[in-house]
Amino acid sequence: xxxxxxxxxxxxxxxxxxxxxxxxxxxxxxxxxxxxxxxxxxxxxxxxxxxxxxxxxxxxxxxxxxxxxxxxxxxxxxxxxxxxxxxxxxxxxxxxxxxxxxxxxxx
Length: 107
Prior knowledge:
Blueprint: E1 6-13, H1 16-28, E2 34-46, E3 49-63, H2 67-77, E4 86-89, H3 95-104
């Protein structure tokens, strides 16, 4: 299987304003063409305890070649000790949309 050209990278944040600021910073840096911020309810284990908290998920649309740079940027800017960073391959998409993602992340 070949490596896909495009990916969606997800992370979460504990505050809506921080999530929007991080999304804007990543897109502004040219590391993603766009980002969506959505409210979610998260259930997870942290430091031996089961937690349930409101969070805001950020999905970044970008090129796979930019994952390491995007991950380093998010890790440096994030307030979490261990921020979620998961990349999912884009196997297909509208040619015009993918051309736009490519153009917006070409720098």
